[in-house]
Write a structure and sequence with these properties.
single chain; Hypothetical Protein Pfu-838710-001; 10-stranded antiparallel sheet; globular; alpha+beta; 8-stranded antiparallel β-barrel; 25% helix; Rossmann fold
Length: 582
């Protein structure tokens, strides 16, 4: 049988492109080993075992782990997902698993198939020949993968390939494993969620929810979870709500038990509890509402409300939902809520982005100081996220990454920084003679951080702590340069406790710069003489030449250059790089 035409259309434009790819393959079933006119013992072979964490279905991907033993004895484990289909199947990029990850999956309890794979070529195209073992002993399959569909359709197989089974139901490996284990019950949601950016993945979310509505024939519950400042509410939950026309959104924040309850628990010695702990949410009440919506078709409920000013919950008015109820919150993918949810979305963001969004957001909307915001985030929010929120991504059906975009979001700092540097040194009298005020001098140690989840050299960001001999230190964050040469800048004084917590989250430091700085103020511009400059990177110490820096939050670069000229500096020697970039 030749491949059917309904599998040969090109992928739609809105199909995911970053996290998945399309496998184009035709498969054949030879009559037996003796019919294959190739000396297989002279060809490369691999021993393969495949375990299945989920079989493919109408709205689900096949999820498998493959163990491959190479001819030289090397062994690797890879995890991959594949869509149902025939000649064209969507598949994720294989993920190499560590020994610990393999152990955690308990593969020994899962459905599996075993085979030996040989590699050869026909008509210049790579051909894979599989011979099965165990319950499938005696069966064989030939797979030919193509770069495009035209090549696949135009391929004329040799007679010894046998019957084509590309579109025959029950003939791919996942189907055969399912036939061997017809009654196998997989552990709940034991699969790897597919992963996309928010921009690429939302359309997929809409399509899968629409499919659930059609297949289930009842109201659908969608759970959206994610860390603080991930965009789970504004970017994802509200988008789903709007797409399906539900009047309201169910926020787990409104099921908070309140500060009085929290204080009573702490009085009992439960100091670990906080606003960011799952026990702070009345999940029993939330679960009851969701069950009433799903099982009884109730669409309108008393509206719970949490007052962030008083710290206490209340009930006032009503809340209503359409055919799709979207529930969002830190713990929306908890075990209890996933008992009733039909579809789970996790909105992911790295620790650096989570911190910067939270810091820039809360400085403008709360009465907390930056030091207080930072300490609460690092000591409570971050730890709770790592322990309770991030692990729940494993039970999601899809993970949407909504990373911090410094080229856009850093401007929320509200302060723009423009600076220029010139190598060399000048006399303090030349600055004072122009009417400058002496601001002081001192030795500075700048510790620059490098997050584990992004490369600042690519994003154009900078994060440092400056020590100048006082108990408190200065935290500085700079975003990438804007088109006019300025950089968004956030600066705050923090104490030693916050500094230590920050170092822990950023897992060490990238490098250190030390210098002696003497500063002056002239016409709103800070002029600094930097000497005894040195940088330490990777254990190596390197000296830098002296520099004069001019910095302002209001002056344009040409104004700074003009002022430098008044100081006798040569404009052609301007250095626009920061010390971190030198």
């Amino acid at each position: 049988m030749s491949p059917s035409t309904h599998h040969t259309s090109q992928p739609e434009e809105n199909s995911p492109k970053k996290a998945t790819r399309f496998e184009i393959e035709r498969t054949f079933e030879p009559k037996g080993r003796e019919y294959i006119p190739i000396a297989l013992d002279k060809h490369t072979a691999q021993e393969i075992t495949q375990w299945y964490l989920q079989f493919a279905g109408e709205s689900s991907y096949e999820d498998r782990v493959r163990r491959t033993e190479f001819a030289d004895g090397r062994v690797i484990y890879e995890r991959q997902q594949k869509s149902p289909g025939g000649m064209v199947r969507e598949e994720t990029e294989p993920v190499l698993l560590s020994d610990d990850e393999v152990r955690e999956l308990h593969l020994e309890s899962l459905p599996r198939i075993e085979k030996t794979r040989y590699f050869t070529s026909v008509q210049g195209i790579k051909v894979e020949i599989d011979f099965y073992h165990g319950p499938l002993e005696g069966k064989a399959k030939i797979e030919v993968e193509f770069r495009d569909q035209d090549g696949a359709i135009g391929f004329v197989p040799p007679e010894w390939f046998g019957e084509e089974i590309t579109d025959e139901p029950g003939t791919n490996d996942g189907d055969r494993a399912q036939q061997l284990y017809p009654d196998f019950c997989f552990p709940s949601r034991m699969h790897t969620p597919v992963r996309f950016t928010v921009e690429d993945g939302l359309n997929r979310v809409y399509e899968e929810i629409e499919a659930l509505r059609a297949n289930l024939g009842r109201p659908v519950i969608v759970s959206v979870a994610g860390g603080s400042a991930s965009g789970k509410t504004s970017k994802v939950a509200k988008s789903i709500q709007a797409r399906f026309g539900s009047p309201d959104l169910l926020s787990l924040d409104d099921f908070s038990k309140g500060d009085a309850w929290l204080q009573s628990q702490r009085a009992l010695g439960r100091e670990h509890l906080s606003w960011d702990h799952p026990e702070y949410i009345d999940s029993t009440a939330a679960l009851s509402l969701l069950k009433s919506f799903r099982d009884q078709g109730i669409r309108e409920f008393p509206k719970r409300h949490f007052d962030f000013q008083t710290g206490e919950p209340s009930i006032a008015g009503t809340i209503s939902f359409g055919d799709v109820l979207v529930v969002e919150g830190l713990f929306a993918l908890s075990d209890s809520l996933m008992q009733v949810a039909d579809y789970g979305v996790f909105v992911d963001i790295g620790p650096h982005g989570r911190l910067m969004r939270r810091l820039l957001r809360d400085v403008s909307r709360t009465t907390m100081s930056p030091n207080e915001i930072l300490k609460y985030f690092l000591s409570t929010v971050h730890e709770a996220h790592e322990e309770h929120v991030q692990p729940s991504a494993k039970v999601a059906d899809i993970v949407l990454t909504n990373e911090y975009k410094p080229e856009i979001e850093a401007t929320r700092s509200g302060l723009l920084d423009n600076q220029v540097k010139f190598p060399g040194k000048i006399s303090a009298f030349s600055v004072l003679g122009l009417g400058a005020h002496h601001l002081g001098s001192g030795f500075q140690t700048d510790v620059y951080f490098a997050p584990t989840d992004r490369d600042f050299s690519e994003t154009g960001e900078l994060l440092r702590i400056r020590g100048n001999g006082t108990p408190n230190q200065i935290l500085t964050y700079k975003g990438p340069r804007l088109s006019n040469g300025t950089r968004p800048r956030f600066e705050a004084e923090i104490d030693e406790e916050a500094s230590a917590q920050l170092r822990k989250v950023y897992d060490g430091q990238a490098f250190v710069i030390q210098k002696l700085r003497e500063s002056f103020l002239l016409d709103g511009v800070v002029i600094s003489f930097d000497s005894n400059l040195s940088t330490t990177r990777g254990g190596g110490l390197r000296s830098l030449e002296n520099h004069i820096e001019l910095r302002s939050s209001t002056a344009e670069q040409d104004e700074l250059i003009a002022l430098a000229g008044r100081l006798g500096l040569d404009p052609t020697k301007l250095v626009s790089l920061s010390y971190a970039e030198m």
